[in-house]
Task: inverse folding
């Protein structure tokens, strides 16, 4: 989840999007009792450690299935997609909310049930024992992304109990390994219900920023994301005894290659989403940075503007592909010359740029005698061009929680499972209005928490969105 990055890259003032075209079907609005039920569900989910290696995702799926069955969903409309990854069982979950028009293509609603594990000793609270404190709920997954699971599941349950029926099928599409591989995501997408979806709304890729007193600043609708590709940069050597050092040394050769990779520069590449982001950022940030961003939007190769923007990585990372060394491994004994020296280089690649082209660029910079190979898989994913009806739909949800706030299409510099849906031909947009104050994005970090007031608003958001899907 990348809400901090989204907030940094968004601007606030602009004309509001058009209102949704359809009239919401009659249904009761969320009550305080509904909000309490959703919070109770979130606490139950947080208390189940669903990090890789713990094997607890199927247990969480059982909790959700029981809650939805009790609300009136038929067993045939609740589908588990079990898979085994590295000897561990995890599960995807699909829940079908049957619509009136069986011929209409469904809409998939995304969230992930797994979390990044926590270092308990570094937390002020137990990460897997949810605690309410100072207006927040603390616990691993409160932001990323169990709040999305809880509000979507509880909204389905509430509307089902009320007897409401959508026009087309709505699908909960929850994955069990988004943080580590997205193989359960692929299993969910492969199911015939989900494969037929017209589009998807991703609760892990929406939201924005608010002031400390809760006023809206900027909210984003993820429409694209960078590819995450990791490369091994390796130097091999015959080795030898450390008492007889030679000029050919794997460690030093790798170090020199990394310095060349550090100096490597990718060109500015703007797409339909990032061009608007750059324009808004230039207006918001102003000064030298704003002028440089404006220049690059017109003259991508301007050396003076590039020098200014490179001093602001929080702004520049949407302009070009980035690569950075993140790990090192070399040698097998302290008194032996290394026979192997390897660096891990992680790249975030703009949509439309093949990972192989980036690998070749790294190899060229590294120089002769240095091998560069892809580690794992690089999943390339296209831009989901904003659609007027979907933008209006999501703007209606945002207006229900933060009146006057304006939704903007954005590209994430990191990745979500939206990439898997896009590459499968299902356009996907980030949805949700979780507003976080500056510095309060703690996903993957210590003392993860969610503002209770912001969480409560999400029931209003998804109520407004689901009832307007035509």
Result:
């Amino acid at each position: 989840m990348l809400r901090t990055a989204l907030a940094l890259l968004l601007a606030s003032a602009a004309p509001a999007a058009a209102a949704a075209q359809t009239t919401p079907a009659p249904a009761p609005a969320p009550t305080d009792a509904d909000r309490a039920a959703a919070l109770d569900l979130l606490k139950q989910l947080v208390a189940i450690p669903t990090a890789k290696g713990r094997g607890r995702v199927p247990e969480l799926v059982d909790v959700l299935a029981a809650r939805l069955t009790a609300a009136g969903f038929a067993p045939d409309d609740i589908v588990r997609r079990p898979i085994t990854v590295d000897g561990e069982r995890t599960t995807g979950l699909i829940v079908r909310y049957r619509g009136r028009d069986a011929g209409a293509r469904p809409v998939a609603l995304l969230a992930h049930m797994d979390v990044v594990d926590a270092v308990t000793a570094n937390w002020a609270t137990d990460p897997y024992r949810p605690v309410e404190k100072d207006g927040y709920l603390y616990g691993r997954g409160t932001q990323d992304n169990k709040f999305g699971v809880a509000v979507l599941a509880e909204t389905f349950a509430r509307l089902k109990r009320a007897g409401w029926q959508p026009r087309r099928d709505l699908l909960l599409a929850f994955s069990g390994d988004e943080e580590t591989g997205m193989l359960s995501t692929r299993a969910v997408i492969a199911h015939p219900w989900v494969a037929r979806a017209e589009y998807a709304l991703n609760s892990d890729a929406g939201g924005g920023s608010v002031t400390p007193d809760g006023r809206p600043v900027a909210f984003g609708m993820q429409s694209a994301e960078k590819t995450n590709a990791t490369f091994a940069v390796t130097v091999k050597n015959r080795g030898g005894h450390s008492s007889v050092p030679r000029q050919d040394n794997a460690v030093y050769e790798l170090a020199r290659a990394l310095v060349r990779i550090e100096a490597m520069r990718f060109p500015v590449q703007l797409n339909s989403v990032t061009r608007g982001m750059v324009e808004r950022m230039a207006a918001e940030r102003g000064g030298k940075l704003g002028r440089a961003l404006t220049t690059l939007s017109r003259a991508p190769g301007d050396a003076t503007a590039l020098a200014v923007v490179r001093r602001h990585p929080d702004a520049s990372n949407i302009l070009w592909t980035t690569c950075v060394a993140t790990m090192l491994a070399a040698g097998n004994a302290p008194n032996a010359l290394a026979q192997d020296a390897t660096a891990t280089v992680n790249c975030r690649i703009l949509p439309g740029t093949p990972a192989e082209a980036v690998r070749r660029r790294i190899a060229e910079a590294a120089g002769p005698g240095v091998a560069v190979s892809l580690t794992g898989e690089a999943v390339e994913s296209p831009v989901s061009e904003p659609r007027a009806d979907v933008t209006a739909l999501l703007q209606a949800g945002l207006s229900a929680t933060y009146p006057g706030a304006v939704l903007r299409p954005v590209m994430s510099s990191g990745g979500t499972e939206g990439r898997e849906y896009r590459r499968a031909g299902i356009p996907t947009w980030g949805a949700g209005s979780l507003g976080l104050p500056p510095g309060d994005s703690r996903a993957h970090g210590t003392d993860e928490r969610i503002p209770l007031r912001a969480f409560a608003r999400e029931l209003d958001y998804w109520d407004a969105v689901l009832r307007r899907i035509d």
